[in-house]
Design a protein that fits this description.
single chain, about 375 residues, alpha/beta, Aspartate Aminotransferase, domain 1, 7-stranded mixed beta sheet, 3-stranded antiparallel beta sheet, 13 helices, about 35% helix, about 15% strand, globular
């Protein structure tokens, strides 16, 4: 039997209650299963939460990233960290642009804004700021550079719903792109959101995500010729269903509570692991409010892989985010890049511990004791 009485501590567990079950059942009973009224309710609550004009629900964050590039006709270079999930770069390439990989800061694992200008060329059109693990990038510096060079700013906020920089939420600086995968700060199972203060861009995105038809079924319902559907541009099917949107509506009612629990659990771990010299703990920057979508450590003795295996053997479902970095993926071997020493160092030494709102204090204490046990054990 595993230690901890055989209990497995998962990497993440969605915070789903009876309210989500009831709401989904109501939608199923209504018969309106595809894009419908709950989409509008979800979008309105999300936009209000961020303080932006437009929020557009869709099937994934990848679709939001893709449309943020496509709808702006970006065909040149997009500066992006290599230390991210491959979806960030995939969206750039599939939309017809070129990723240019930039190194990261060691402490927060976000794009190193001090390097951005050295990567800008006559072909650069956008910066994709990926907010890693729940903490915003240095948005003042990024926006200053973007404004100076007339570059579009896209915020990959998949991991930072509710995180703030100088009291502004992630995704409210540029075009915000969010994920509602079960590991994220809120979930709809699968799903994404694009946010913008640009009404014209919002209109283009809404048209592109629904086959190029500029009115949804909900908008046509009740009109004289409700069957009339004419595409104004060739588009895609990136829609979110009414079923998933209703999960989003319920999750938005408790997003702050869930983020507060993530912060509480994370600082319990930080306080109790400060004396472990072999690891570097997460750092919350002075201008930020970290929402700890992931809780990551960096192992300083080069034993990351063995450490992850040790935790797994003891029922702690640790993982690694991200190994390899995108510039070392076979699909991206054709893209030239500068040396990325910090990215490669972090990739080789970082690991992700379980983190989710419903964790119990016993889980946290068991993680702490197991980590200390590993580093205090006699070396072979």
């Amino acid at each position: 039997m595993l230690p901890n009485n055989g209990k497995i501590i998962p990497l993440c567990k969605a915070y789903i209650g009876e309210e989500e079950s009831r709401a989904v059942q109501e939608v199923l009973n209504s018969g309106w299963l595809t894009h419908g009224p709950k989409n509008i309710e979800f979008e309105n609550s999300f936009a209000e939460y961020l303080g932006v004009k437009n929020a557009i629900a869709m099937n994934s964050c990848t679709s939001a990233l893709f449309l943020s590039i496509l709808a702006n006709n970006i065909k040149g270079e997009v500066l992006v960290p290599s230390f991210t999930f491959v979806a960030s770069a995939n969206a750039i390439v599939t939309a017809g642009a070129k990723p240019v990989f930039v190194d990261i800061n060691y402490n927060d694992c976000n794009i190193d804004a001090s390097l951005l200008e050295s990567y800008i060329t006559s072909k650069t059109e956008a910066i994709m700021a990926v907010h890693y693990a729940g903490q915003c990038c240095d948005m003042d510096r990024i926006m200053d550079i973007a404004n100076k060079h007339k570059l579009l700013v896209i915020e990959d906020s998949a991991e930072t719903i509710g995180g703030t920089y100088k009291n502004l939420k992630s995704g409210s600086w540029g075009i915000g792109c969010y994920s509602f995968f079960p590991t994220k700060n809120i979930t709809t199972g699968e799903g994404g959101m694009l946010t913008t203060n640009d009404d014209a861009l919002a209109s283009r995105v809404k048209t592109l995500l629904g086959h190029g038809i500029d009115k949804t079924t909900a908008q046509r319902t009740g009109s004289k010729n409700s069957w009339y559907r004419a595409a104004v541009v060739p588009g895609y099917n990136f829609r979110m269903s009414n079923i998933l949107a209703t999960l989003g509506v319920e999750q938005m009612k408790k997003v702050d509570k869930m983020n507060a629990l993530r912060r509480q659990h994370s600082y319990h771990l930080i306080e109790n692991l400060r004396d472990v010299e072999e690891i570097d703990l997460p750092v919350e920057n002075a201008d930020c409010r970290h929402v700890f979508q992931m809780f990551t450590l960096k192992v300083k003795n080069g034993e990351r892989d063995n450490f992850v295996f040790y935790l797994k053997e003891r029922g702690i479902e640790a993982s690694v985010h991200f190994d390899p970095p995108v510039h070392l993926h076979p699909a991206y071997s054709e893209y030239k890049y500068s040396k990325l020493p910090v990215t490669e160092n972090v990739t080789n030494n970082i690991l992700t511990l379980p983190m989710f709102p419903g964790m119990e204090e016993n889980d946290l204490n068991y993680i702490v004791s197991t980590i200390k046990e590993y580093f205090e054990r006699p070396k072979p």
